[in-house]
Amino acid sequence: MSTSFFVLALCTAVTFGGNLGRVLDLLEALLDDADPYITIGDGWCRPPMSECDWSEEADPDKLCRMRGVLVKATSPEDCRAACDAANACIAYGATTGTTGFCGMYGQFDAMPTDDWHASKGTKTQIGDLSSGKSGYSCY
């Protein structure tokens, strides 16, 4: 790994509040023309821990959500393709079954099509953890 690659990764991690290890993995994948998506974990994508109040009183599962758009009855492959096609999409969460919900995360100014609706979240940075909900994965 070159020094300039490491400096780019460090600057990206600091600028976007991300984890340096995750940023290095993502940049390496992009440079190697590999799969640009990293599996973050089971469940819906969540913002960085520093973006939310994680006390029990705050109910972070309801209050700490990502900004984006959602649609029902979509396959994981169609969800990924929708994220690939949307310039605003920085990550996506999809069912692990044959069809289910698809969530694309990012600052969408408009819905991709009429069947999409805005998520209830307000956060715009993807964290290192997901919600843990079974049946879905964050990429």
Main attributes?
18% strand; 139 residues; alpha+beta; single chain; 2 domains
SSE succession: HHEHEHEEEE
Largest sheet strand order: 1-6-3-4-2-5
| Helical proportion, percent range | 25-40%
Low-confidence stretches: none
Contiguous helical run count: 4
Q: Round the Cα radius of gyration to an integer and report it.
A: 15 Å
Largest sheet: 6 strands, antiparallel
Task: Count structural domains.
Answer: 2
Distance between the termini: 24 Å
The class by helix and strand makeup works out as alpha+beta
Strand content: 15-25%
Mean pLDDT: 83
Layout of secondary structure:
Layout: H1 3-16, H2 20-31, E1 41-42, H3 60-63, E2 68-74, H4 76-85, E3 91-95, E4 100-105, E5 117-118, E6 136-138
Antiparallel strand pairs: 1-6, 2-4, 2-5, 3-4, 3-6
Summarize the structure.
By secondary structure, this protein is of the alpha+beta class. The protein folds into two domains: 1-36, no CATH class; 38-138, no CATH class. The chain is built from four helices and six strands, in the order H-H-E-H-E-H-E-E-E-E.
Characterization of this structure:
This protein folds into two domains: 36 residues, no CATH class; 101 residues, no CATH class. It has four helices and six strands; from the N terminus they run ααβαβαββββ. A six-stranded antiparallel sheet has the order 1-6-3-4-2-5, with helices on one face. The mean pLDDT is 83. It is of the alpha+beta class.
